[in-house]
Amino acid sequence: MLIVDSQVHVWGRDTPERPWPTSGAEGRTAHAQRDEPWSHQEVLSHMDRAGVARAVIVPPSWEGDRNDLALEAARQHPDRFAVMGRIDMNDAADRERVAAWRSQPGMLGIRLLLSDSAAWFKGLADHWLWGAAERAGVPVTLVPKRHFSLVGDIAARHPRLKLCIDHMGCMTDSKDADAFRYLPDLLELAAQPNIAVKASALPCYVSDDYPFPSIHHLVQRVVQAFGPRRVFWGTDLTRLPCSYEQAIALFTREMRLASDSDLEWIMGRGVCEWYGWPLP
């Protein structure tokens, strides 16, 4: 079975030569998931031990709108890494860059955190990004916060735009039932065929220990609603409260999700096809 992690981070140090944005900047945080930088070589070592063939690198918010380290990892290891990159929603120049976004070696699409404190959020339904990405065939992954109806509206207005919702729509500052309080809103979006879901980082949002029984029925409901071809396993490895091997076994052994052929989609094939990352 091809195993592809739909979300990992890499980052460098906060230095004068490569500074992070200040705390409080739009949609960003200055707090990294661990004190030390996390290199793609470290990610590769974990992947090799756990049997993960590929990973999608998501540049982290605390570095700002940078994609350089992620793209360098994909350049060095094109068979192992690809990137869902960050974009500056306030920069008109990025509007022009979307047309050639996927011409960057290793770049698959765009990842966006919806922040109602951001200057661009007020007019988000009519933002230039959606039409530009739809025309260019650039998939977009979203952290929706509570804005599920807005995501549904964007998907309906741009039916050829592939959207994907991170972390099963969790409220990322919460745990347990509070973290998953918008699951019904997520499930309503399953009727729109251009929306998929990342079942990523889920152990980070519950208080129980491996095998995290509190999330089993939630994942089952999402797979039932969206189907195995639109649900993508992932970890957010740097903050995972279990081993990489356990994160895999949670889906392949502990939860009764689907047949073996369906698991192939959930564990790797689906995210590759959705993002347009050719299968090996």
Short description:
The chain is 33% helix and 14% strand. It is of the alpha/beta class and 280 residues long. It has an 8-stranded parallel beta sheet.
DSSP strand tally: 8
In N-to-C order, the SSE pattern is EHEHEHEHEHEHHEHEHH
Largest sheet: 8 strands, parallel
Radius of gyration: 17 Å
- Structural class category: alpha/beta
The DSSP helix count reads: 10
Q: What would you note in describing this structure?
A:
The chain is an alpha/beta fold. The chain has one domain (4-13, 25-275): Metal-dependent hydrolases (TIM Barrel, Alpha-Beta Barrel), CATH 3.20.20.140. Helix content is 33%, strand content 14%. The protein has 10 helices and 8 strands. It has helices at 40-50, 68-76, 92-97, 128-136, 148-157, 176-179, 183-188, 216-226, 244-254, 260-275, and strands at 4-8, 54-57, 81-85, 107-113, 140-143, 163-165, 195-200, 231-234. Strands 1-2-3-4-5-6-7-8 form an 8-stranded parallel β-sheet. Helix 5 (148-157) links the parallel strand 5 and strand 6. The longest helix has 16 residues, at 260-275. The chain is globular. The model has no long low-confidence stretch (mean pLDDT 93).
